[in-house]
Amino acid sequence: MPPVSFRQVGAGSWYGQNMDHPQAPAPGAVPPGVVPRHVAVVMDGNGRWAKERGLPRTEGHRAGEEALVEVVAGAIEAGVEWLSVYAFSTENWRRSPSEVRFLMGYSRRVLRARRDLFHSWNVRVRWAGQAERLWPSVIRELREAEQLTVNNTGLQLVLCVNYGGRAEIISAAKSVMEQGGAAALSEASLSQAMSTPDVDLFWRTSGEARLSNFLIWEAAYAELVFTDKLWPDVTRQDLWSAIDQYGTRERRYGRA
Ligand code: IPE
Ligand code: IPE
Ligand code: MG
Fold first, then answer.
1. What residue's CA is closest to ligand 2, atom 9?
2. 17 CA from centroid of ligand 3 (Å)
3. Ligand 2, from 41, 42, 130: best to mutate by most atoms within 8 Å of Cβ?
4. Phi-psi group of 207: left, alpha or beta (phi > 0 → left; psi -120 to 50 → alpha; rest → beta)
5. How far apart are the C-alpha atoms of 153 and 18, rounded to whole Å?
6. CA 175 and chain centroid, separation
7. Nearest ligand, CA of residue 60?
8. Given phi > 0 = left and psi -120 to 50 = alpha, else beta, which region is 157?
């Protein structure tokens, strides 16, 4: 299959035709050895984006789809290996039934609409989250995207849908203990049982400075970067600035 032109997914985007971006230099400020291996993204601010425009919250979610595609492309260009994106938390069921219903249908549509594009970029899609309560049609779509891309060797894209960090720790602990009992519990065995490797850069948009139960085990030593922009306004340059900030940090892991 010929590479899908990024032009088809949004005006001003060039991925697939030209690795340079028309509005900014290609990533390169950060030397390859300093690029974070795993970036976790809390895609926040959709509701506020819509409110600022007098639109229903759901329009903010809709507008966020383009930002997701941008950030995936930017991560590939920067040489990131793992990108985990927080799409729906185990706490988001507390939202109004109509917003929850929208988010379920919307996840399904985005998955179906974008999986071929991601596949053509050699992206491997993975789902992290709880099956409990999640719409079976959404699970089906997630499984299909996983199966379609299972042999891809490029960016590992973890879609965190009905994901909660505490729930993930409990599941991991249960699976380790089922195999080896309490004696088998260790930091190494639990890390092994998590859905992702350790997070290097934890990035949240919209100015909120909290973890909101995202990858709390994996992000124990992550560098935190917070960006004021609301998610639908985000472009790949914003990811690259977060990566630039990451590049200036000194990671000590407790050493003097
Ligand atoms: C993030 O945007 C998307 C989801 C949680 C699904 P929000 O919907 O949280 O937007 P704000 O925080 O209300 O602006
Ligand atoms: C976290 O954002 C969840 C997602 C981005 C999917 P929230 O907007 O739900 O988190 P809180 O409520 O501000 O902590
Ligand atoms: Mg929010």
1. 92
2. 34
3. 42
4. left
5. 21
6. 24
7. 1
8. beta
Given CA atoms 236, 242, 248, 254 in this order, what sign does their dihedral have?
Answer: negative
Backbone angles phi, psi at 145, to 5 degrees: -65, -40
What pLDDT digit, counting tens, does each position of 91-135 carry?
A: 999 999 999 999 999 999 999 999 999 999 999 999 999 999 999
Q: 80-100 pLDDT, tens per residue?
A: 999 999 999 999 999 999 999
Residue nearest to atom 10 of ligand 2 (CA): 212
Torsions phi, psi for 101 (to 5 deg): -60, -45
Q: What is the CA radius of gyration of the chain?
A: 18
Output the pTM of the full model: 0.91
Say whether pLDDT at 34 is over 90: no
Which atom of ligand 2 is nearest to 208's Cα?
13
Q: Kindly report, residue by residue over 181-231, the tens digit of the pLDDT.
A: 999 999 999 999 999 999 999 999 999 999 999 999 999 999 999 999 999
What is the DSSP-derived secondary structure letter of residue 39? E
- Look up residue 6 and give its DSSP letter: G
Within 6 A (CB) of ligand 1 lie 43-48, 88, 92, 103, 206
* Residues classed as catalytic: 44, 92
Longest Cα pair distance anywhere in the chain, in angstroms? 56
Q: 161 has which bridge partners? A: 88
Which ligand has an atom closest to residue 59 CA? Answer: 1
> Over the stretch 134-157, which tens digit does the pLDDT of each residue have?
999 999 999 999 999 999 999 999
Long-range contacts of 143-146, Cβ-Cβ distance < 8 Å, separation of 24 or more:
144/111, 144/115, 145/111, 145/115, 145/118
The mean pLDDT of the chain is: 90
- Atom number of ligand 1 nearest to Cα 88: 6
